[in-house]
């Protein structure tokens, strides 16, 4: 009783102390007087900004255009050239029939430095909503090789899980492209190419991992290969045993889906040895293509691209042009705004 | 007609304290002096003789004078609890209604009937005055009381921006459906042309059997993806078990993103912030009453920046309801002028010392006067001055009470009269006591008893009152006080010189908005008086037209009077009222005064508030009693205005012809300043359906509108009328219970707190204790709120469109498959984390010009009224900017990525890198944009803007980190994307280019607008030149209204009938009466006449009598 009384009294004292005045606090925050800088679009600032932006955009544009000029690129579209193979592939029953074609071409100027070989697909929609989702990252990271959730409609084949499952994996680009250099008119040299180091480090070592087993085939036991594949995942690269399974570079490259229906993916890097230490010398070359990947059915096209790179990657002219145009327009705007400003000032 | 039956049911044994909520019909409650009446009561008995009881009805109808109520004789003896306990009467009365001045009922008690009228009722909202206690039977309680019946219904208030938003949301929804349809058609075509052939790699779902059905599904998927443009949390969430897994947010996405930051939520946060700023504003804190301003709702703030019409109560809002004896003119000499030139409303602190009244033991300490020369005149024995104060101490109907020796207390029925008698008291002419036949005055220390021969009572036609007294020497003298227009015509010709001097003074006082009365006296012969008294008695006994006869008898004697001087009473305005009104008028806000008080007092206040000025071309007064009269008066007013504007137009040679067909537009552009004063009974006609438009047109063409003698419900009707036809934002401000209805009706209701009643505050949206805070509420808080809200909404739409439309463009590149451009987490976090806080900070803290400037340039308020900052046009501009940004946001990265590769040869144009690039440039662009929009960079803005960017990158890298991927490989499949993509120079070049291209046009556009067509706030920000000019203008304005005026300042809140009451002695306690001298005269007819005259004055005669005002 005594205690209750006392607590009540202290509570009362507290309230009386805490509200001696209802006067609002005189703080900068509450009075909306916070120290602040009022940003103003003054003429000098705006004009200076436009001038500087225009200048830097122009400069950047010119640099980009110049460096894009230095890139050498050769594209060989083999959709038409290999029309026979294409026709063969349109019928799914012929999946086991081999078909290949050769395309000779000429490189007029030596391609200096690192040369990259891409395959380029036209009209292949790797960005379809369902397509992009149709994969199992849990399977690909090696945790559970039989995990096929989300892989519809390529999750299982007659009840057996597919590895790697999903529409992306199933549609993997599986043409074989071999580049030969016509050294002398008689002698063809196979241009040495690297099929590794063409994927991101994080993909190769983090995102894609093989199931931890001593040997790959047993790791993939209990699964079947995707229906469109000719060989199981652990036999993708016969030459390099460690480049197999989910960590196969070509597979990883394919699995990184493209943003647009026309895209090029890195296929091989030039191995700069023998004749090719400086890059690809000028001369005549030929492509030997084992045609497996059907594209004509959906009006797609395929081509092979050989290209060198610069500091900004294999950029096209677009970026340089865009910068140049932006710079030019900004300067134009700068001068017209200057004119407007000066006339307005005079009027005042 | 249904009747109510109320019986005094409760058995009373003792008095109990009960809260108001427990008061029930049939209870008997006791009220004490100065208490609010808790329910509608039937007055049973009171402490005063004859069951009289005085009430102040200012809360109820805004009238400032005291009213008298009387219990019916049978119950007036029930003064004791034991007697009350036996009271078992039954009342049958009308059902609850909103008529404040009518009541009819019957009391059945002791087997007899007693008629009840309004005269026996104490209505809720009144205050008991000058009455120690009274008992009442509760007739109506709670919502049935007349006050509550008048208060109107509470409506849910929404701002115009809210309503606009509703429309816009619908439009956006339509836009969303359009986009959905376009994309669905696209999908159907694509599936038909390409998709069917692509089935080798991606077969259709089992459910999808045709391209058409696929398009249909795609439509719904796009509606879900694109719904981020719709700014409400209308969110379709497709759960598992939907028609097809093809739809988005199917089972594949375990954590379904909820991308829509509920816009209503952030709007509420901003409004809440603004409300707190109002609560915290120390410049809206009233030191005297210790009350800060209070925003009672948090939903209306931005509308405070759009107010066009203010409806103000008078009593207690504009005025303090305190009358102060301010100046007087005695025998051609004016007293009370200040030595300083500051004007009469200077603050107390700035004045010299007030007069010391300590010589007078009976002086009222509260009375203050500043001119010592008046006291000198009294002390030196100036006979005119003595006579002046003698008149004030004799000619009135005040009752005195002296509880202890020397502690005088006056019961005045109007505060004006109280002020006059108190002035006389302090200057040594102390009215001490009265009996029906005598008045005792302590004249400079010596008590003198005058014999009171007659009181010639006040009424609205006469506008004067007189007393006839016989002084101890036996001389009979008539003292008269009244309106100058009336009295100055009745003076003796010999006072001509004095008259002109006094008239000058009167004009001067009137020009200052003071209420003036002229004082005069006349010596009467003994014989003449005797003869006159006989005639008066005859007139008063006449059966027919007694009133007219009396009036003519009075008129006869009140003639050839000697002018004594004039008094000037200040109806004390609340602090800073004229300045506030002037400022608000400059801000193009129209102010209407709606008061229950009399026309004279209302007009007088109109002048003292500078709402009405002598510069005005004309003040129209509408007092018609019939529909036709009112219509005619309104028509005349309009014609006059039209004529005036026509002559002005014709004055210039090349003016286009006025088309009379468009009356409204003509009236809008009327030349000259007009004002309209309309009476309650005329207003009742004017508000009828067929005349309301005419009335509104006329009223809106006037600069000031004053509606007097209006009922609470009429106040609401006027507000409703303006709301209905003008499409303008209205604000009602008031302090009393009679303002509740208009406070509830108006878009914004403001209650003046700290006064006695709190009903107005309880019904209000904003409350503070001084009218002058209104300017700050509107011009500073309201303006900023509106500005901030508009900026916020513009930016909000912009950023959501920029964000969402990218999906639309991407649709054309992904087979319309409802693929999003961004990572699901970005979609979820974009609105609630990455971009919400900077815009919230802007919405809460932004200021375009400092607060002092918005007071200096009231014109800055106009954009809000014209709704310039956020309307459909601005909305489309924002949308266009958003779409423009989205186009660049998509196509620049597309152009770059289409052909490019990374610097190590690997693919650049993969979906994930594209997503990160677009998302990053989007976040940067909208951050730069908010930086441009933010005009007031506080530390908080800096923190939020930089913080948002930092958080974006932090979350980006965290989401794309190896650790998270290891734990949840399916959820965080963007692993390694951030570090790989953002390490590419090409990506950064793209981001920079996108930012530059998105932002520079905005900067250029703003710069050009600034140089070619700057609005006022820009100008205020940039030029000091304009500032000086405006300031000069401002100063000019303050000087207006001090010029001389030819109008009368007469206004007197008085009611007739009290003279008779005094002469009958009914209201005097037996103890204070000299019983011997008391002879019962005539009858108890005084109360009858009091009642009748009151209804008369409310009814007919004022129409003619108000003419002299101006016109």
Automatic annotation (TrEMBL), chain A:
Subcellular location: Membrane
Domain of life: Eukaryota
Keywords, in A-Z order: Glycoprotein, Membrane, Transmembrane, Transmembrane helix
Coiled coil: none
Residue ranges of the region described as Disordered: 1-27
Bias kind Polar residues: ranges: 12-21
PANTHER family assigned to the protein according to its UniProt record, in alphabetical order: CELL CYCLE CONTROL PROTEIN 50, CELL CYCLE CONTROL PROTEIN 50C
Identification of the protein by name: Cell cycle control protein
Organism: Erinaceus europaeus
Automatic annotation (TrEMBL), chain B:
Membrane-spanning intervals of the chain: 168-190, 210-236, 792-813, 825-845, 875-894, 914-932, 944-965, 985-1008
Renumbered residue ranges of the record's region Disordered: 1083-1111
Catalytic activity, EC: 7.6.2.1
Swiss-Prot/TrEMBL catalytic activity: ATP + H2O + phospholipidSide 1 = ADP + phosphate + phospholipidSide 2
Keyword annotations of the record: ATP-binding, Magnesium, Membrane, Metal-binding, Nucleotide-binding, Translocase, Transmembrane, Transmembrane helix
Intracellular or extracellular location(s): Membrane
UniProt KW Transmembrane keyword: yes
Coiled-coil annotated spans: none
Family statement drawn from the similarity comment of this UniProt entry: Belongs to the cation transport ATPase (P-type) (TC 3.A.3) family. Type IV subfamily.
Name listed for the protein in its UniProt record: Phospholipid-transporting ATPase
Organism of this sequence: Erinaceus europaeus
Gene assigned in the entry: ATP8B2
């Amino acid at each position: 009783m005594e205690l209750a009384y006392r607590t009540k009294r202290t509570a009362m004292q507290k309230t009386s102390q805490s509200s001696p005045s209802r006067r609002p606090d005189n703080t900068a925050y509450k009075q909306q007087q916070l120290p602040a800088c009022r940003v103003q679009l003054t003429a000098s600032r705006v004009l200076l900004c436009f001038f500087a932006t225009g200048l830097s955009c122009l400069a950047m544009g010119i640099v980009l255009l110049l460096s894009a000029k230095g890139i050498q690129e050769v594209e060989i579209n083999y959709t038409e050239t290999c029309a026979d193979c294409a026709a063969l592939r349109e019928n799914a029953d012929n999946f086991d029939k081999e078909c290949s074609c050769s395309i000779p071409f000429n490189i007029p100027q030596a391609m200096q430095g690192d040369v990259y070989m891409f395959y380029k697909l036209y009209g292949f929609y790797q960005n379809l909503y369902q397509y992009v989702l149709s994969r199992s990252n849990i399977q690909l990271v090696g945790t559970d090789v039989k995990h096929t959730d989300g892989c519809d409609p390529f999750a299982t084949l007659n009840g057996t899980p597919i590895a790697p499952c999903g529409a992306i994996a199933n549609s993997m680009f599986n043409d074989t492209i071999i580049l030969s250099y016509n050294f002398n008119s008689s002698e063809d040299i196979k241009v040495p190419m690297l099929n590794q180091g063409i994927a991101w480090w994080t993909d190769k070592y983090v995102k894609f991992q093989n199931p931890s087993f001593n040997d790959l085939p047993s790791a993939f036991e209990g699964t079947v290969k995707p229906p469109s594949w000719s060989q199981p995942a652990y036999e993708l690269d016969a030459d390099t045993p460690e480049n197999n399974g989910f960590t196969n570079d070509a597979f990883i490259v394919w699995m990184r889906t493209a943003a647009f229906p026309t895209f090029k993916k890195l296929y091989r890097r030039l191995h700069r040895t023998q004749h090719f230490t400086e890059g690809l010398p000028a001369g005549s070359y030929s492509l030997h293509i084992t045609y497996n990947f059907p594209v004509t059915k959906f009006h797609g096209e395929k081509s092979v691209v050989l290209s060198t790179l610069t500091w900004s990657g294999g950029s096209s002219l677009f970026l340089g042009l865009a910068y140049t145009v932006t710079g030019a327009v900004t300067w134009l705007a700068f001068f017209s705004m200057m004119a407007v400003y000066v006339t307005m000032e005079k009027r005042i | 007609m249904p009747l109510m039956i109320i019986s005094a049911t409760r058995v009373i044994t003792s008095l109990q304290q009960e809260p108001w909520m427990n008061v029930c019909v049939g209870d008997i409650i006791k009220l004490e002096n100065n208490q609010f009446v808790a329910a509608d009561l039937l007055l049973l008995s009171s402490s005063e003789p004859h069951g009289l009881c005085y009430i102040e009805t200012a809360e109820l109808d805004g009238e400032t004078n005291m009213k008298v109520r009387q219990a019916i004789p049978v119950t007036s003896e029930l003064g004791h609890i034991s007697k009350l306990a036996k009271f078992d009467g039954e009342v049958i009365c009308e059902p609850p209604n909103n008529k404040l001045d009518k009541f009819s009922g019957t009391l059945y008690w002791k087997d007899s009937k007693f008629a009840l009228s309004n005269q026996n009722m104490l209505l809720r909202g009144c205050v008991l005055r000058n009455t120690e206690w009274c008992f009442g039977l509760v007739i109506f309680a709670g919502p049935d009381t007349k006050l509550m019946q008048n208060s109107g219904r509470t409506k849910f208030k929404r701002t115009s921006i809210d309503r606009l938003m509703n429309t816009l949301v619908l439009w956006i929804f339509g836009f969303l459906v359009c986009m959905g349809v376009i994309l669905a058609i696209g999908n159907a075509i694509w599936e038909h042309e390409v998709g069917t052939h692509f089935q080798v790699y991606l077969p259709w779902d089992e459910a999808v059997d045709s391209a058409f059905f696929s398009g249909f599904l795609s439509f719904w998927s796009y509606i879900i993806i694109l719904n981020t443009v719709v700014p409400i949390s209308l969110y379709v969430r497709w759960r598992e078990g939907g028609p097809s897994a093809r739809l988005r947010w199917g089972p594949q996405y375990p954590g379904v993103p909820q991308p829509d930051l509920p816009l209503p939520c952030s709007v509420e946060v901003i409004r809440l912030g603004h409300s707190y700023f109002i609560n915290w504003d120390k410049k809206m804190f009233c030191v005297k009453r210790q009350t800060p301003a209070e925003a009672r709702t948090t939903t209306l703030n931005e509308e405070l920046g759009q107010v066009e019409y203010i409806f103000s109560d008078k009593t207690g809002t504009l005025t303090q309801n305190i009358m102060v004896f301010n100046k007087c003119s005695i025998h051609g000499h004016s007293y009370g002028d200040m030595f300083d030139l500051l004007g009469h409303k200077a603050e107390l602190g700035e004045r010299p010392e007030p007069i010391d009244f300590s010589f007078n033991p009976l002086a009222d300490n509260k009375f203050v006067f500043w001119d010592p020369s008046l006291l000198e005149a009294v002390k030196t024995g100036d006979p005119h001055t003595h006579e002046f104060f003698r008149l004030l101490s004799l000619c009135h109907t005040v009752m005195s009470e002296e509880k202890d020796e020397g502690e005088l207390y006056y019961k005045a029925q109007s505060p004006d009269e109280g002020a006059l008698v108190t002035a006389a008291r302090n200057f040594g002419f102390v009215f001490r006591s009265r009996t029906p036949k005598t008045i005792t005055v302590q004249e400079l220390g010596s008590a003198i008893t005058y014999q009171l021969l007659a009181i010639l009572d006040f009424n609205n036609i006469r506008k004067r009152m007189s007393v006839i007294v016989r002084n101890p020497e036996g001389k009979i003298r008539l003292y008269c006080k009244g309106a100058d227009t009336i009295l100055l015509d009745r003076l003796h010709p010999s006072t001509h010189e004095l008259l002109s001097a006094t008239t000058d003074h009167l004009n001067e006082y009137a020009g200052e908005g003071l209420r003036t009365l002229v004082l005069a006296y006349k010596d009467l012969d003994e014989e003449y008086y005797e003869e006159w008294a006989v005639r008066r008695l005859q007139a008063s006994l006449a059966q027919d037209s007694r009133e007219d006869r009396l009036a003519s008898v009075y008129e006869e004697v009140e003639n050839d009077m000697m002018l004594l001087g004039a008094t000037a009473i200040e109806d004390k305005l609340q602090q800073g009222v004229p300045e506030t009104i002037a400022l608000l008028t400059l801000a193009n806000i129209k102010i209407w005064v709606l008061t229950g008080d009399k026309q004279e007092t209302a007009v007088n206040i109109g002048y003292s508030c500078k709402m009405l000025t002598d510069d005005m071309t004309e003040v129209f007064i509408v007092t018609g009693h019939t529909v036709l009269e009112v219509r005619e008066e309104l028509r005349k007013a309009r014609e006059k205005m039209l004529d005036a504007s026509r002559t002005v137009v014709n004055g210039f040679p090349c003016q286009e012809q006025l088309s009379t067909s468009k009356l409204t537009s003509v009236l809008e552009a009327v030349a000259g300043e007009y004002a309209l004063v309309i009476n309650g009974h005329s207003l009742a006609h004017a508000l009828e359906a067929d005349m309301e438009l005419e009335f509104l047109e006329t009223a809106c063409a006037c600069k000031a509108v004053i509606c007097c003698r209006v009922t609470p419900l009429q106040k609401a009707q006027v507000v409703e009328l303006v709301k209905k036809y003008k499409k303008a934002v209205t604000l009602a401000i008031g302090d009393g219970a009679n303002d509740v209805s208009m406070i509830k009706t108006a878009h914004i209701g403001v209650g003046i707190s700290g006064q006695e009643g709190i009903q107005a505050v309880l019904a209000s949206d904003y409350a503070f204790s001084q009218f002058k805070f209104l300017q700050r509420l509107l011009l500073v808080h309201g303006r900023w709120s509106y500005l901030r809200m508009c900026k916020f909404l513009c930016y909000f739409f912009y950023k959501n469109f920029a964000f969402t439309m990218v999906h639309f463009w991407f649709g054309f590149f992904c087979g319309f498959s409802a693929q999003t451009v961004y990572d699901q987490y970005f979609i979820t976090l974009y609105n609630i984390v990455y971009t919400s806080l900077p815009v919230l900070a802007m919405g809460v803290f932004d200021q375009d010009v400092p607060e002092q400037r918005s007071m200096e340039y009231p014109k800055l308020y106009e954009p809000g009224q014209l709704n310039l900052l956020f309307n459909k046009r601005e909305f489309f501009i924002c949308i266009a900017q958003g779409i423009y940004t989205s186009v660049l946001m998509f196509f620049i990265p597309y152009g770059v990525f289409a052909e490019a590769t990374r610097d190590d040869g690997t693919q650049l144009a993969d979906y994930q890198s594209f997503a990160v690039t677009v998302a990053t440039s989007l976040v940067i662009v909208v951050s730069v944009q908010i930086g441009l929009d933010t005009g007031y960079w506080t530390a908080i803005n800096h923190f939020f803007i930089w913080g948002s960017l930092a958080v974006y990158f932090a979350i980006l890298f965290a989401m794309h980190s190896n650790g998270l991927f290891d734990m949840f490989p399916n959820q965080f499949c963007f692993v390694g994307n951030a570090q790989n993509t953002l390490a590419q120079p090409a990506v950064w070049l793209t981001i920079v280019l996108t930012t530059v291209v998105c932002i520079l046009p905005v900067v250029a556009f703003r710069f050009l607008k600034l140089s070619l067509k700057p609005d006022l706030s820009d100008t205020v920000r940039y030029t000091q030149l304009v500032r000086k000019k405006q300031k000069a203008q401002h100063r000019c304005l303050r000087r207006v209204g001090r010029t001389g005026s030819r109008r009368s300042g007469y206004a007197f809140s008085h009611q007739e009938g009290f003279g008779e009451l005094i002469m009958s002695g009914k209201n005097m306690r037996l103890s204070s009466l000299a019983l011997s001298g008391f002879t019962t005269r005539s009858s108890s007819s005084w109360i009858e006449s009091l009642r009748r005259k009151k209804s008369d004055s409310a009814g007919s005669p004022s129409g003619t009598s108000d003419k002299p005002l101006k016109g």
